[in-house]
Design a protein that fits this description.
single chain, alpha+beta, Aminopeptidase, five-stranded mixed β-sheet, 4 helices
């Protein structure tokens, strides 16, 4: 059975191992300074939020990070699920679905209007799950790096 709880300082080493797996998956790299600041902000649970999933043996098997922000199409907020990662050896076992449900519950409790997220078009494994738990919007993502 998967359990999910907010990130705490004690989760650092296990989170870091998962975080590095996440960055590797997306062929990305960040400085140690950014990684440390990210974890500190997630644990502070102020603007950024994070949770860790554990299997029945207490092993960390996934994480999720999210934030809420004001929106112009509602009087409440939107919740953006920014990062979701499940250890490769546990994928397909319901951890990703449980992490999304956790964020949804937190967003509902906070009065948010919706939860949304992005993924890469080639992330077919994750997209198969996302197609079961959410509605694709058809929007195309653009960005300008600063």
């Amino acid at each position: 059975m998967t359990t999910i709880a907010p990130l705490t300082p004690a989760d650092h080493d296990e989170w870091l191992q998962l975080w590095n797996g996440y960055l590797t998956f997306y062929e990305a790299s960040l400085t140690d300074e950014v990684t440390a600041a990210t974890f500190a902000r997630l644990v502070a649970d102020d603007e950024l939020h994070g949770a860790i999933a554990r299997d029945e043996n207490g092993r960390a098997v996934g994480f999720v990070h999210w934030l809420s922000h004001p929106a112009t199409w509602t009087t409440s907020t939107y919740t953006y699920l920014e990062d979701l990662f499940v250890a490769p050896d546990t994928r397909g076992g319901g951890v990703g679905r449980a992490l999304i449900a956790y964020v949804r519950g937190r967003a509902e409790s906070a009065g948010s209007h919706k939860v949304y997220w992005l993924t890469h078009e080639t992330n077919t494994t994750a997209r198969a799950l996302y197609d079961r738990v959410a509605t694709g919007t058809g929007f195309v993502h653009y960005e300008i790096g600063l």
